[in-house]
Design a protein that fits this description.
201 residues; alpha+beta; OB fold (Dihydrolipoamide Acetyltransferase, E2P); DNA polymerase, domain 1; Helicase, Ruva Protein, domain 3; 5-stranded antiparallel beta sheet; 10 helices; 5 strands; 45% helix
């Protein structure tokens, strides 16, 4: 595994660089977040790298920070999120903002990422919520995360979104129900049942 590459920045494009390492040029795919941090051509550069091997094809991906690389690898563990989409995600949102969106179950923000729709956003939240603090511990204590709804409320909203309802409408309906029914009746199943009655009436 090639974990880090150090050399001279030989050539740059928005999505790819070539690093000259003692006369050998490595073609490396990068996200925009890394592109923004690149030095000028001809200057020294260090990238944290990941070698992706699939069906005999080897592709190098490079990142300006270890956090970007860690998030890239974590995204690749999610069904339906390959390395190309992982790079798109890193190009669309900062690591900290992504982690905060996961921690606060912010489907609206995640759905704005190029290549990620509401269903993919929901899957990312479900599969990464308990893992994201490894990359960005501060996200678990952010203002956004602190204002996240309780688990049963969050589950009800995500369930309604998966059924085809708009996130804003689902959230508004669920929060209204939670404010009107006793806490003893606020299971996610009961909230979903009442919400469907209200939304389909």
């Amino acid at each position: 595994m090639i974990g880090k590459i150090k050399g001279i920045l030989d050539k740059v494009s928005i999505s790819e660089v070539i690093i000259d390492c003692n006369g050998v040029g490595y073609e490396i795919i990068i996200p925009l977040s890394t592109y923004d941090k690149l030095p000028r051509e001809g200057e020294k550069l260090v990238l944290f790298s990941h070698l992706h091997v699939r069906e005999g094809e080897m592709t190098l991906f490079g990142f300006a920070t270890q956090e970007e690389k860690d998030l890239f690898r974590l995204l690749n563990t999610i069904t339906g999120i390959g390395p190309r989409l992982a790079v798109k995600i890193l190009s669309s949102i900062s690591v900290t903002s992504f982690c905060e969106a996961i921690s606060s179950a912010d489907i609206k923000t995640l759905s704005k990422i190029n290549g990620v729709g509401p269903k993919s956003a929901q899957r990312l939240i479900i599969e990464l919520k308990d893992k994201i603090s490894i990359i960005s511990p501060e996200s678990a204590y952010s203002t956004t995360a602190a204002s996240a709804p309780p688990k049963h409320t969050e589950e009800a909203i995500l369930a309604l979104v998966s059924l085809g309802f708009k996130y804003d409408m689902a959230k508004k309906t669920v929060l209204k129900i939670v404010s009107e029914i006793p806490s003893a009746e606020q299971s996610s199943e009961n909230i979903i049942r009442i919400a469907l009655q209200n939304l389909n009436s």
